[in-house]
Amino acid sequence: MSQVKAYAAQEPAANLEPFEVKRREVKEDDIQIDIEYCGVCHSDIHTVNNDWGGSQYPVVPGHEIIGRVMQVGKNVSGFKEGDLVGVGCMVDSCQHCDSCKEGLEQYCENGVVMTYNGKDEHLGGHTFGGYSENIIVDKKFVLRMPENIDVKAAAPLLCAGITTWSPLQHWNVKKGDKVGVIGLGGLGHMGVKFAHALGAHVVMITTSPEKSKDGKELGADEVLISKDSEQMAEHRGSFDFLLNTVPVGHDVNPYLGLLKRDATMVMVGAVEPLEPMHGGALIVGRKSIAGSIIGGIKETQEMLDFCGEHNIVSDVEMIDIQNINEAYERVVSSDVKYRFVIDMKSLKEK
Amino acid sequence: MSQVKAYAAQEPAANLEPFEVKRREVKEDDIQIDIEYCGVCHSDIHTVNNDWGGSQYPVVPGHEIIGRVMQVGKNVSGFKEGDLVGVGCMVDSCQHCDSCKEGLEQYCENGVVMTYNGKDEHLGGHTFGGYSENIIVDKKFVLRMPENIDVKAAAPLLCAGITTWSPLQHWNVKKGDKVGVIGLGGLGHMGVKFAHALGAHVVMITTSPEKSKDGKELGADEVLISKDSEQMAEHRGSFDFLLNTVPVGHDVNPYLGLLKRDATMVMVGAVEPLEPMHGGALIVGRKSIAGSIIGGIKETQEMLDFCGEHNIVSDVEMIDIQNINEAYERVVSSDVKYRFVIDMKSLKEK
Description:
The structure is a homodimer.
Chain A: E1 2-8, E2 17-23, E3 30-40, H1 42-49, E4 65-72, E5 84-87, E6 90-92, H2 98-101, E7 113-114, E8 134-138, E9 143-144, H3 151-154, H4 160-170, E10 178-182, H5 186-197, E11 201-206, H6 212-218, E12 222-225, H7 229-234, E13 239-244, H8 253-256, E14 259-267, H9 279-283, E15 288-291, H10 297-310, E16 316-320, H11 324-332, E17 339-343, H12 345-349
Helix pairs in contact in A: 4-5
Protein name (chains A, B): alcohol dehydrogenase (NADP(+))
Keywords (chains A, B): Metal-binding, NADP, Oxidoreductase, Zinc
Family (chains A, B): Belongs to the zinc-containing alcohol dehydrogenase family.
């Protein structure tokens, strides 16, 4: 067991401050990772604030982790000291339920272990995330990072990336499909990049006309301003797929009207009550609304490989860990393009 | 053009009274049908009351029509005088859009013509339904009825039947699946019969313990009382498919909790706003909620053939047309097992 420098919130909505976490010994299936970069996800803030309930303090957030292998356990092959690796939202699962067997550990029927605020099976208590010097993770949950992409900007792929990639794959988005990405934040900007790279005709759907230029630069073929009823009417019934990244409850009925018959809108952002949906918005046109959360380890590796081939990373703003509380305020007010990433040297050196 | 005896509402929420409707001449593609039985659907009442807006008066309801061919146009083959036929919710569609080409006339992109309160392309004005002596319908929208089943009890197959059959087919419900049918009314009782006949393990889900006995007699293997939180917890995450026939807005969140990962609940009843749905109820488990409306002509014929083979009809209570207003009151208070059917002799003879 070792003591490792970290940043933690000690109570709901508290500022994050320096804290030392315990890390287990490196066991036979473990990989110890020296953390170089860690992305800042809105979920970090929800957990710090206990917005979803169930937060356990101290909270050490961080599940978009990039680093280099420091040490491997004796059963670990294929990873060696110095390898560039990533860890996302999960660090363990039961490995024997149907979901795990299908490579969908995020839906583990016995409870996936989240990277932070999960149940720590090794030390007891709860898990501590990536706002720390290093982390020790079972080899099955360690991803190989492509070396040819901008490493620091790759951190958000581990959560924002896979969260948008997985539904595009599962609902079989393909070349020529008309795909709408609703909301242009950390998730939305990755949705636009991926849908574009997959060959779809991408429409960025936003309430904010000022986001149009950025949307097109990220890969959108068109921008649809959802507050403009004429524009919405023009696009009515024309979308093969909608990826809804809006992070708060909202009125989904206008978006359902954009779908073609038999098409689906997938929610990846709003883990809270939506405004009342009209049954007729689904019934007329046999439409679906579904949800999706992150993605399995196999699929995450496929996404990272795809990012390597297509040179896809997130648009990020680098910060030092000492500025994390200010960064949280800016995330909450959507004042970031499009993801903060912490340079973890700042934790080790300052 | 001919004048035909019918029953109509002259204004919103008015009682139905005798009325004469105009029927067009029998054109070359037409079939004239002497109506023997007509089911009473809750949609009839919604249209009479203008609950959904857009009702045009006088309203002559009725889209669960069973009768015998009186006369056929010169282009009609395969139907002859005396044949037992049915007409459901649609009497025409464009026939050239993608939906029509795929046999999904109910989703016609140029606007399907409903059996009543649709746009009458022949005489102008709006269409008049089956609460009348006879009807003239394009051959493409006339179904062949199996002669071996109880004809009068077959009328509701044309709406309640296809409305529940179509989603069971589209979402591929098969032998051994655990299927829940939510709500036991006109739609629900057909859902239970069909899911049972398809070999599913059927759970009838209802708020009313007093419906348990009926549910099992109709073919349910189990009854789940949705107000009983212990029972709901036992069934959590166990359903392959849910058919939600509840005809009014309600809280769908507890039902979404019953679904397995990747499973779908299909709404067929509630054409109105639902209570706020929690995004997390979809996201955790990659679940879907979808809608479905009636079914295409080809699929309706397949359902009728299946009913002939498996001797499936609705449970009905027969009435005379003169008692229609009292029947409407009883439908609204759910006091019917499970569908009223009008014996149309009462219109012709009294």
